[in-house]
Amino acid sequence: MPRKKDSEREVKKREVRKVGIHLPEVGSKNIDKPGERHGDKIAKPKLSLKTFTANIALAALKAKTITDTEAIKAKRSIYEKDEIMRTLPVTTFDLSEIEVELRFLVEDVEEDDVLITTDPEKISALQNSLSTVKLKLTSKPLLEYTLVSGEKVLKE
Fold it and tell me: What pLDDT score does 32 carry?
């Protein structure tokens, strides 16, 4: 039987592999099933602060990947066809440092996370109760090493 830590690790690995903005999966502890009734209201998905901030970082990574891919396409389709441009370096955007300010309402606190809402109606009605978090995302290269045994190790 897997330990609780093992299953959390597996969940984190799945979340890291996702690219782009996604709400938590249905059935996870951070979300009610859409359409589920609570009294006379239909439940909307609950978003955790952990998932929200991780998805912002992943969206920045995806944006960098997209811009680099487009720069490579431009090099292949435009630069390589022209004798003069072929010698020029390909330019792309530098997304090495990003600052984000998040404004949200805390809906609930669970054992290891905070459930939030970004619902514009609730936020406009409760301006004085908003929580704010400022994130500064700074890129660091990941280095991959291969041990003598053949095992690959990532180092930040």
Answer: 46
Q: Among positive and negative, which fits the CA dihedral 91, 94, 95, 96?
A: positive
CA dihedral 114, 119, 121, 122 (to 10 degrees): -10
Q: At what angle do helices 49-77 and 4-17 cross, to 10 degrees?
A: 30
What average pLDDT does this structure show over 120-146?
A: 87
- Strand, helix or coil for residue 49: helix
Beta strands 131-138; 97-109: pairing state: antiparallel
Among candidates 91, 90, 89, 92, which has minimal Cα distance to 64? Answer: 92
Q: Judge if pTM exceeds 0.85.
A: no
Question: Residue 117's closest CA among 55, 58, 45?
Answer: 45
pLDDT at position 41, please? 60
AA letter at 109: V
